[in-house]
Every structure is written in C-alpha cells, then in structure tokens.
C-alpha cells in the first residue's frame, strides 16, 4: 500500500512505499515530474515528490525538500537511528532499472543529475505530521 504524506506546503503530493516490493511498483509507475528520494548507501523507502507544472529540482522549496528527506530517513531502519544521514534525490526519469537488479534496487542514467543533502537528525514534528 502506498502512503501519502502532507508536507509543510500542502499543494505538493508526497508518497512512498514501505518495502522493496512497493518500491518496485513505484519505480514502474512514476511520472516524469516525480522526484525520487532515498537514503544514500542504506536501505530505505522510496519517497516521491510530485512537482508542479514547469518546476525543476532547483524550484523545490527548502522546507518541502527537508520534509521529503526527513520522511526517507524516518523510513530507513538504519538511517533512522543515525545522525547526519545522506539523502540522494533525482528526477524519476533518471532512475535506471535493469533485469539483473534486486527488487526495489535502482541505478541512475546520469550520476551527475543526482543531488545529495544531509539530514542532521530526525525531526519528529515533520514525520508525525
């Protein structure tokens, strides 16, 4: 079951899968305007942010970016326990899925199109919204 979240800006749609099988389904059915978030180098949920018309990665409000990063950290067994967790994000269209990859695993067509932010610590007021 896909979960939807409310960000600080309620005009954005944010959703995630809870396990690798749901992540796999989300990989298949993403939209070109979706931004994908994942904890870097650890297992985690896939969190997606649907951009508004004509928006780019540069246009994402910082508070919305923080909300998505917090959600992906919160939905990582290892990442949730750690401080200063790296979170990567890129456009859904940059996700590369090949037949030899595990369920829920992805790569990237263009590594330079992947951005990274650091989540210093979990903010419960965000993840419990």
Automatic annotation (TrEMBL):
> What family name appears in the similarity comment?
Belongs to the CCDC25 family.
State the species of origin.
Answer: Rhodosorus marinus
Q: Name one Pfam family in it.
A: NFACT-R_1
> InterPro entries annotated for this entry?
Jlp2/Ccd25 (IPR039730), NFACT_RNA-bd (IPR008532)
Q: Which residues form the NFACT RNA-binding domain?
A: 1-110
> What is the protein name for this chain?
NFACT RNA-binding domain-containing protein
């Amino acid at each position: 079951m896909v979960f939807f979240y409310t960000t600080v800006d309620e005009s954005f749609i944010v959703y995630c899968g809870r396990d690798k099988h749901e992540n796999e389904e989300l990989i298949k059915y993403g939209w070109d305007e979706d931004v994908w978030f994942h904890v870097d180098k650890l297992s985690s949920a896939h969190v997606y942010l649907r951009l508004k018309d004509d928006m780019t990665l540069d246009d994402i409000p910082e508070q919305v970016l923080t909300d998505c990063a917090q959600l992906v950290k919160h939905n990582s067994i290892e990442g949730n326990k750690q401080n200063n967790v790296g979170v990567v994000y890129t456009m859904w269209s940059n996700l590369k899925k090949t037949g030899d990859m595990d369920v829920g695993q992805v790569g990237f067509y263009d590594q330079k199109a992947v951005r990274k932010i650091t989540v210093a610590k979990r903010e419960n007021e965000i993840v419990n919204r």
